[in-house]
Amino acid sequence: MSRTIQLSIWKRKGREMDEKDIDSQTSSIAITQTSKSKMKIKSKAKKNKPKQHPLLSYNELPEYMKDNEFILNYYRSDWPLKQALFSVFSWHNETLNVWTHLIGFGLFLGLMMSNLVDVPQLSEFFGVFPSSSSSSPLSSESNISQNLKDLYPVTAKFIDLNSPEMEMVSPVQKWPFFVFLAGSLFCLLSSTTCHLFSCHSHNLNVLLLRMDYVGIAVMIITSFFPPIYYIFQCQPLWQIFYLAGISVMGTFTIAILLMPKFSSIKYRSFRAFLFVGMGLSGLIPAVHGTLANWNEPRRNAILGYESAMAIFYLTGATFYIYRIPERFRPGCFDLAGHSHQIFHVFVVLGALAHYGAALMFLEYRGSVGC
Questions:
Q1: 75 SS3 class
Q2: How far is the C-alpha of 283 from the C-alpha of 35, rounded, in Å?
Q3: Which helix (H) or strand (E) is 315 found in, with range?
Q4: Which residue has the higher pLDDT, 230 or 126?
Q5: What radius of gyration, in Å, describes the C-alpha atoms of the chain?
Q6: What is the spatial distance between Cα 318 and Cα 275, in angstroms, rounded to a whole number?
Q7: CA–CA distances in Å: residue 256 to residues 20, 78, 236, 260, 277
Q8: Which helix (H) or strand (E) holds 114?
Q9: Tens digits of per-residue pLDDT, 34-64?
């Protein structure tokens, strides 16, 4: 009897131990499954989380991106297009290169719109810059002299259209003026795009750099259209000669810049001197036009604008070619103050000076006719 009781007790204990083993196995399986599911969730989260793209030093860059050995840090390389786009709001060594020309593009777009359409809000916002729609020779109510009198009191005496001898005698074609604005917009936009997205890949870097060079050449070519067209409007042979000459020269320059050989970093200074040469070629029609209109009272004011434009462009090119100031303190101007950013600022200032001159050419041709 006692033996039977002992056997039953042992059986009961065995069943309890088996049940405990099953429970422990079940719980361990559950824990394992839970940990696996957590690991899966973490792996999914890692996959969904955008990959971080660190800024690199000059020595870490691929060879095709090594352009300026005096800028040592804060480079982007092999960034996806989305991250490159949003990097416009973060700090790296291209941030101010992007924003200097992006702001310039917005400024010239506003000037273009204020000259194309008569919107009071635009005119007020861009009131510091004379508008051809509200103050050009084509306006019967106002003229450019009013705006320039406030901005440039020294030269305002040359632009008094209220006097009887300065009445408008002929309508003026405005397309050369808008050709210049369109060329400036293309240059500023192509430069902004290049500096923002050239970090994506080698192929895109090469493509955008060439587009940037073409943009500079187009801006130089279109800058010639207002002065040459309006100065030689009454001398069509000279007008065609000079416009055709700068167009051919610009096309030849663009063809050279699109060659793979001359797109490399080693020809950087050559490209800069090529652009400077294009700009300096304008001295020939400038001297011709000045001598042909020596007694024109607006001569000095126009020369002042164009001289300012030349000084701005040449100063910017000097900073760009000789990499001033970063060559004197490598690493100190990585984020702000290096030569390319300074070059961009001078380009915008030069374009604005030429914009002022273009408005005066419009006023001049509308007042004297042929």
A1: strand
A2: 78
A3: helix 299-322
A4: 230
A5: 34
A6: 12
A7: 85, 28, 30, 9, 14
A8: helix 95-116
A9: 555 555 555 554 555 556 789 999 999 999 9
